[in-house]
Amino acid sequence: MTTVASKTPEMPETPRNLANPESLGTPTTPTPRGDGTPNAPATRAEICVAACADAWRGDGEIIASPMGLIPQLGARLARLTFSPELLLSDGESLFQANVPGDGEDVFEGYFPYRLVFDLVWHGRRHVMMGASQVDRYGNQNISAIGADWNRPTAQLLGARGAPGNTINNPTSYWIARHSPKVFVEKVDLVSGVGYDRAAALGAAARFHEIRRVVTDLAVLDFETDDHRMRLRSVHPGVSVAEVVAATGFELAGLDASVGADATADANASTYSDGAAAVPTTRIPTTEELRLIREVLDPRNTRNREVPEPPEA
């Protein structure tokens, strides 16, 4: 029989669950360079972690299911800061009352696999998973590459839980390498359901929501009238033109001919090519950087997944 610890974690005198990210500390200078030391500027990987964390902002008491290193760090960062109600699993059958690295492991609930679907069928879970291909409406492929499904060019994971995740829960995607091979006009096989297909399902897709796509270059979403993907923000040091060139379809809200000089201005809040203005992805606050570097990932494994771009 599994015994669940009943220890209650001590609450800090000053709550860390503040809705305003600026209240967690003073943002660092908006430059992505850094060596991981306590006072270094935010790295590209750390900007991605904070962007993933923001996907869960305002979700309340739901199950957070991050798949992969950067999403895991993001969900744990959200739990430690502005989303303390998030439920985090140990990956097996227990809900954790704290996050790994933040003191002794403490568990607050028993959640075996047989109980999972009682919650996930009702929209009480937000999944962040990967995508081998994704199109303008958020259809995702993790099954196979190639038009001939009987003889695919590359056999991948298979659809696994992607259809159920996308129909029954808010879903976001993390993509470590933003490229035209991933962002395609049409996915070879639909694993996760996008907005165009969900629209035909009626009430069966009442919980469907593709919330964010976070990549090593940018943050994208589907907050447009027709739910086509748009550029929500561009990471510091990345140009709008670079994101457009790395995307295999036209992003909503951007002129098709984005100038190559659409680069970052460290003193401005937007990137602009003259035709479109795109906000910069926010820099993690001082407190968020401390948590990432000292509590969540002191071994700096994040930079292996998202290495620093070469110096300009």
Short précis:
This protein is α/β, with parallel strands linked by helices.
Summarize the helices and strands and which ones pair or pack.
Blueprint: H1 44-55, E1 63-66, H2 69-80, E2 87-89, E3 94-96, E4 107-110, H3 113-120, E5 125-129, E6 133-134, E7 140-141, E8 144-145, E9 154-155, H4 162-168, E10 170-175, H5 195-198, E11 209-215, E12 218-221, E13 230-234, H6 240-245, E14 270-272, E15 277-279, H7 286-296, H8 302-305
Parallel strand pairs: 1-2, 1-5, 5-10, 10-11
Antiparallel strand pairs: 2-3, 3-4, 6-7, 8-9, 11-12, 12-13, 14-15
Beta-strand percent range: 15-25%
CATH homologous superfamily (4th level) name:
Glutaconate Coenzyme A-transferase
Q: Quick one: biggest sheet? A: 9 strands, mixed
Radius of gyration computed on alpha carbons: 20 Å
CATH class: Alpha Beta
What is the helix fraction of residues, given as a range?
10-25%
Broad shape: globular
CATH fold-level assignment: Glutaconate Coenzyme A-transferase
Average pLDDT, all residues: 81
How far from one another are the termini?
58 Å
List unreliable stretches of 5+ residues.
Answer: 1-34, 256-275
Structural class: alpha/beta
The strand line-up of the biggest sheet is 4-3-2-1-5-10-11-12-13
Q: What is the count of helical runs? A: 8
Compute the number of strand runs. Answer: 15
Query: Mind telling me which CATH architecture this is?
Result: 3-Layer(aba) Sandwich
Order of helices and strands: HEHEEEHEEEEEHEHEEEHEEHH
Count of discrete domains = 1
